[in-house]
Amino acid sequence: MGTHIALLIVTAVALLKHSVQGDGVNNVKNIDCCQFFPVIDDLLDLFEGPNTCSEDGALMVRLAYSDAMGIDPMLSGGGADGSLVTFSAVELQDPANDGLDNIIDPVRTLVENHEIEAGDMSHSQISDTNESLSVQFAAAIALANCPGAPRVKFMMGRPAATAPAPIDLVPEPPSSPKEALMNENLNNIDTTTFILERFSSIGFSPSEVVSLLAAHSIATASDIDSIVPGTPLDSTPFIFDTQLYIEVALRGFLFTSTGENQGEVGSAVQGVLRLESDHNLARDSRTNCFWQSLASNQTAMQAQFAAAWFKLSLSGHNATSLTDCSDVIPTPLGITTPPHFPPSLSNDNVDQACATAAFPTLPTEPGPPLVVQPRQQDD
Predict the structure, then answer these.
(1) Domain boundaries in the chain?
(2) What digits encode the pLDDT tens for the residues 232-261?
(3) Overall pTM > 0.85
(4) Residue 67 marked ligand-binding
(5) 79 is in an annotated binding site
(6) Is 88 annotated as a binding residue?
(7) Is residue 277 within 8 Å of residue 247, measured between CB atoms?
(8) Would you identify the family this protein belongs to, as annotated (predicted)?
């Protein structure tokens, strides 16, 4: 009996020790995850402080997305392995990755300061290259800095990238030179079909594609209209909310500067650039009803994005071989402003696309029509 009780006590203590460990300040389930806390401080400096949804933060999210898309069943590629950092000289040749060099250099500085590698900052996996910062970890911190974002999961243990990803795996907005050529060669295929089939090739449904586009709520388009860099994609670029799903569903006639650019269609809000790909997905019969369902439901949007983003972060990897370090990711601030139409706009301006349900009835923000300013570009 005494031996049995002693064994139970030892087991209970071991379980307790495993469930709450830390570095004296922060508590985590796995003590190996503590190595990430010092990196968070440097990331917050890069992102202009805690709870600041900065341009560099949004660019880091885009970097993580593009890196994870670097995999194909036929062409190979490592997926979410940091290859876009490690082999940036190759992968930045892809036009879809234009502008990401602005965030890769700060990432490399973090790698050098913390002696971490691109697989995912694990000190136990330091390589000779020392260029394997987990862009997935940095992106999770960037998202946590944006009010309204979900707290996304993060897994540690990705091996370092061994080769660059093949070019042309990251979908671009319709009417880009690359896709225009492909459409001509492929009998003018629907560009929405092109995007959905690319995602389908790595296991993503149309609804998951729409869910991932929630990241556009904090994004800007600096390379589509070069006259107005930093143009937001919705009217609330510092908040991770559902306004993108609302505003893209509205009929639009406004352009950011001189007129329609490749990949751009008319917007309903002055100063907001509407991507043609977003516009089409909001209206395509395969995606329009799900798009509409997220417009008025912040909680559903957060849950759907978090699930799709976590799935994307595992691209090329198996979760069972990784360590869950999600508890190092801070909890984002909530938001109190409900989904709404921008001033002067209402349900009358909705381009109703879903055939089975009406667009949700929402309040209109009071005041004159908005003129949204470009986001300040980080140096």
Answers:
(1) 26-169+189-349
(2) 999 999 999 999 999 999 999 999 887 778
(3) yes
(4) yes
(5) yes
(6) no
(7) no
(8) Belongs to the peroxidase family. Ligninase subfamily.
